What does this fold into?
Amino acid sequence: MRILAIESSCDETAAAVIEDGRTILSNIVDTQVETHALYGGVVPEIASRRHMEAICRVTELALRDAGMKADALDAVAATCAPGLIGALLVGANFGKSYAYALGKPFMPVHHIRGHIAANYLAFPDLQPPFLTLVASGGHSMLVRVDDYTSFTILGGTRDDAAGEAFDKVARVLGVGYPGGPKIDALAQHGDPARYKLPHSQIKDAPLDCSFSGLKTAVINLAHNAEQKGEPLDREGLAASFCHAVTETLVPRLELALRQTGLRKVSCAGGVAANSVLRAALKDMAQRTGATLYLPPLSLCGDNAAMIGSQAYYEFCAGVRGETSQNAFATADICENICEKSNKEALVKRQKMR
It folds into this structure.
């Protein structure tokens, strides 16, 4: 089964053709990083306009690279939640229209489910159940993948996500946007023990965490150094920050492994590309005897291939999106976004009566 997938939840316009949920036939990503770097972060309105400009082109390129015509597709999928609502609507409406024009099924896909599915593309032998650490720009949580379309959240951040903290710390250190890769590069030349940074503990919720205190501690360190006219070891602070994020996430993942008894563990999301985190995950897996699945760097960031992979399993589970399918800025990974859309439409109809 060949699925055309669209991803436009933030600042990448992407299209891919995926076969049977495991094989990448094409994967095109048009990034807006240079545009948003001018503003120090993603500007939602600009992102939406750029998606509108690029979406036809990336779709044509995806089909060309896959060596197929549109009528040879079996289905179309698009990210419908969560993300920037204007950006999501561009991809969702394009995907719905494309599917309708072809007379093919349309599958709405949850963005975080897609990040987890990136591991299916990298590891054809990976099957649920397994444990996943989701670490992205907007989400940090521990998820038990019970089945391809069934998930249980075991714990997560109470405030900022790890990726969000990376971007804010990058702004403080003056390295610009996007923060993740730039902080990672800076940390390679620093001492992770240079600065003592806080590690969160949530009473009665050992699998939950917080990054707001860590972010504030870095800001205060930089501010105090500036006020006192003291030099700031930027490399050391970046390394200490990466170490603190890792020490917040990995021990909780290890605890979840012990609590669930699962022996397979993966990581998903943009922060999964961080070299310090990847090294710590490998060390944890070796120490506990767990089998670790780490997606390649090319599949850690936002892309349409991961959406196409998850769409295949949503299709197998009977998910079909209507032409009225809406997009949502927020949605729990456990939610069925088809049902969410249908319920919203029903409420609107009742209010109109």
In short: The mean pLDDT is 95. Strands lie at 2-7, 12-19, 23-31, 75-81, 106-110, 130-135, 140-147, 150-156, 264-268, 291-293.
